[in-house]
Amino acid sequence: MESLLTVERRLLLSCPDRPGIVAVVSGLLADCAANITSLDEHAEPANGRFAMRVAYTLPSARAQEAQSRIEAQLDGEDIELRFSDPATLPRVAVLCSSENHCLTDLLWRFASDELRGRLVCVISTSDEHRTAVAAAGVHYHHLPVASRDEMSAHEEQLLELLVGKVDLVVLARYMRILSEQFLEAVSCPAINIHHGFLPAFKGGRPYEQAHERGVKLIGATAHYVTAELDEGPIIEQDVVRVSHRDSSDDLRRVGRDVERVVLARAVRAHLEDRVVRWDKRALVF
Amino acid sequence: MESLLTVERRLLLSCPDRPGIVAVVSGLLADCAANITSLDEHAEPANGRFAMRVAYTLPSARAQEAQSRIEAQLDGEDIELRFSDPATLPRVAVLCSSENHCLTDLLWRFASDELRGRLVCVISTSDEHRTAVAAAGVHYHHLPVASRDEMSAHEEQLLELLVGKVDLVVLARYMRILSEQFLEAVSCPAINIHHGFLPAFKGGRPYEQAHERGVKLIGATAHYVTAELDEGPIIEQDVVRVSHRDSSDDLRRVGRDVERVVLARAVRAHLEDRVVRWDKRALVF
Amino acid sequence: MESLLTVERRLLLSCPDRPGIVAVVSGLLADCAANITSLDEHAEPANGRFAMRVAYTLPSARAQEAQSRIEAQLDGEDIELRFSDPATLPRVAVLCSSENHCLTDLLWRFASDELRGRLVCVISTSDEHRTAVAAAGVHYHHLPVASRDEMSAHEEQLLELLVGKVDLVVLARYMRILSEQFLEAVSCPAINIHHGFLPAFKGGRPYEQAHERGVKLIGATAHYVTAELDEGPIIEQDVVRVSHRDSSDDLRRVGRDVERVVLARAVRAHLEDRVVRWDKRALVF
Amino acid sequence: MESLLTVERRLLLSCPDRPGIVAVVSGLLADCAANITSLDEHAEPANGRFAMRVAYTLPSARAQEAQSRIEAQLDGEDIELRFSDPATLPRVAVLCSSENHCLTDLLWRFASDELRGRLVCVISTSDEHRTAVAAAGVHYHHLPVASRDEMSAHEEQLLELLVGKVDLVVLARYMRILSEQFLEAVSCPAINIHHGFLPAFKGGRPYEQAHERGVKLIGATAHYVTAELDEGPIIEQDVVRVSHRDSSDDLRRVGRDVERVVLARAVRAHLEDRVVRWDKRALVF
Predict the structure, then answer these.
(1) Which domains does chain A have, with CATH numbers?
(2) What is the pLDDT of residues A16-68, one digit of tens each?
(3) DSSP letter string, D43-71
(4) C151 touches C227 (CB < 8 A)
(5) Hey, how many other C-beta atoms are within 10 angstroms of the C-beta on B147?
(6) C261 pLDDT higher than 70
(7) Distance between CA atoms of B218 and B197, rounded to whole angstroms?
(8) Which residues of A touch C104 (CB under 8 A)?
(9) Any chain A CB within 8 A of the CB of B247?
(10) Contacts of D39 in chain C (CB under 8 A)
């Protein structure tokens, strides 16, 4: 009988802080025979906000009840509740250009179930990756952009392929700036990998800048894309040590290793519902 | 009136996992008008155990009630509950030998309130640190040990200075092996800094061994002291990159920087009631 | 005319230390109109040895003369001189089993010219990677091994494919122990990636052991293969932070990211003639 | 006899690249019976420059000859040669304010011979550190600065204490901006520790900015002081991982651990003549 089946659910919650939220959620979950398998929360006195991630298992028949009762109880202004079912894999599109290190890595990770999502398509401004993407059983769309003038037509084509069809867009060295209109229209989050340690080295030449400035560490930053370039909430960052011996080509090469890992960790955190956005910041549970 | 005073409390809990523990604790806390300021938990399917750290604020008048009701509700076999009051600073003794890098660092951290404890005494097998320790306003005891034969008398002297007088013993490069009898008699936890990346390089010559083996990273490990040498639960570890250019003296020097920081982080975590011991492992919330 | 062509050469040198070696080598190179583009050396008082790596450019017509004169001048006991021509790419074979994370990574790096070698074949105990390897234009050999008894026949087959045909063997999670006889017969270096931070966690279950021991960092180690298991000279190591939240499956997953990068760095260093072996240690210039 | 005494010398060299520099230097050193104990060099095709650090031992009687012959041979435009005698310890002044973590660390390192220099004085805008500095046997000068208007008089006082009396000024959280005039007048290098990962987070509030931006790593940067604020050549940098759980006070606390180590490494590299300045960059051998 379905009612005996145990299912898993996750709740991601963000709201103004007040006493008793944990008690309300955990109490209602206990009422519905749920077992909390993981719970992490964060209260910030400085802005008076509270966020929580709860993973729980419960009898399939009571999953909807638990959700409805929590929603009813925590209803109110400025409260965000996101329930999700880990068995329903989010649909992901990867956008890229001719550089393939992040793409290759993501293809491997989706194929190896390291990333709990369904890679539904790869859209590239270059035609080079068709074979590799096809070999992974993923749809490949080649949408070239010759100049800035073509971006608006390009965005139209992207929207056609994405709207309502994917739950997450990953910019894996896509190297184009998407417009505010596009970001609104696509109506799902987009994660970008920036090849620099933000907020240093914004823009398109971070490795050259890093070399000229003689920094001793270079980094990569995965962040949600917002209308303001390289200013979106940071999900993950990492660095690697370099020296004067490294030319800007060397920085580019070692940077690729960091970019891949940082992007993969960010996508993984997002797909596991670990990320809460608070204005300019991202909390990662 | 006292009842209007808000106080802070912490609960560290370890028990067999079962549904509803979070609900019970958070519900009782809500009943007692408490506000949870931080909650972290861990359930491990592999061993069926559960652990949780909760920090909360509540009216002073209800602190004892909250504690008693939680204790009553969660009473049972194999359950550990540790309530603590952050305002009551644990008493700490530091044991060391002639090397003073960890000692100097700990003196600075206690003086700067980075470590929330009360450093009540320093006991050293060397007389060299008397001035520095006195300058920090801390009692200094010089207990020399000429040979292994004297260890048992030495341990007697230590026990006299420690039993009932301190809540934590920190071995800051103390360089002596304490007996099982001593560890039982002292009846408070002891944290040791090992100058190697455990479980590699146990024993007294880790840097020489690391050099001979040509490792590319050296590390330090802070762990609870148990009767089995260098086998106690690991609280914190870190590493630093080295190369063939580094002699074993160089390893010793860069190792000191890691030892200091690793020991300080471990002591801090312990003093903030963040560490739960599960057999050979330490969970750090 | 050929004599006007500028070519690049590298010299890797290891010998007993004595005054004047740098002067001899750089003097003879200057005599032959060479320009030193990179020079790194290491003298170790403790064992009285000296090692040096020099990269230089010179007129093609004088490359042989420079080499011969250096060889004549530095002739003697216990001196190793290795001249190489970066334009001649070393031939590499990758051995693996069913796990493909290192293989996928190496395929990408050879294809992207991050690794300056020629990947001539992949030999796997599993048949799964045929398509991916073929897509990269590399020969694939499936040599299954059902049991330990078959290892000696397996090694025969390997030798047939490798002896005289490759300059480096890379064990990319090959998961079998090669015999001393094999290592001698293959007569080229072999680099292995060990999924643990050597010398801790030798053997086949490092992640399980790491989890049981509750370490706070896990690592990977790339080393030359010698007859003694996991005891060969270490070329590269790295670690990643973990916590009690990570199951041994999680350790395995995050470990894969470290394994890949550590193996690639070691292979790259070897292919660029940066590694000198001194008994149990490897110097990496 | 003096001539039989072996002494150590170092040469730091920066010049336009041309073939044969290593041969000239090592040849002249060999002529003077010197043994090169360490040699590191860097040639940069992009800017056509060359730099080298050589450490050597030779008979005391020939030290001056070696230096003179190298100077004569390498004489020319745009060539910098810096010979030094490791036995002559550079004189160091530390400038600080009320924060004492870097000061405490430097006092310990000079006292422990980790830093090969002579700490001749500590100058502080606060009077708090007098006892600690005196205990280390170092002169303490309290030079308060109430406002920006007083900076010019303050700089006068500083110059009186420093000019001709020290070889290096270390700004150990000195928290004041020194004028271009001062930097010229003091005529010795000054190293500053910036509590942020430059070039991100310039200025005086890096931890607050890091918190607001939600970065996942914070860092510290040691650099030579130039007239342009936080723009001097970077000698050393490092980072530490943080999360949303860390308030800006927490960032400040963990930042202190990075600041200390980064500053100490930079000062050590400078005192060992390992740093060459090329415009906006510092090479560290």
Answers:
(1) 2-84 (3.30.70.260), 91-284 (3.40.50.170)
(2) 999 999 999 999 999 999 999 999 999 999 899 999 999 999 999 999 999 99
(3) EETTTTEEEEEEEEEEEGGGHHHHHHHHH
(4) no
(5) 6
(6) yes
(7) 7
(8) 104, 108
(9) no
(10) 22, 39-41
